[in-house]
Sequence to fold (97 residues):
Amino acid sequence: MEEFSNRILRDGRRGFFHPDDLTFAEPVYSSKLYARAQAVPGVVSVQITKFQRRDKPDEGGPKRDRIEFGRLEIARLDNNPNFPEYGILTLNMEGGR
Fold:
């Protein structure tokens, strides 16, 4: 979860959705999400089952490769259950030790 946060991580790196790493109209690519998840020690496999904008849920489903944003929009994912309109991330994990 930390890898996909909007905060500075314990090791000093920025989470995937840190505001300093995002810019106007920049799409979010599923390939970058896969790569970041696969870089986590112990992760063997990654599968995205839902990848969409909250305000446009029926645009392409899990097979889409990116989420587009308008010229005055910036991707945001706070993952705060009190403010779901700012993005929610759900991970289903299996196995592990």
In short: Residues 1-91 form one domain. The mean pLDDT is 88. The two ends are 17 Å apart (CA to CA). Helices lie at 30-38.
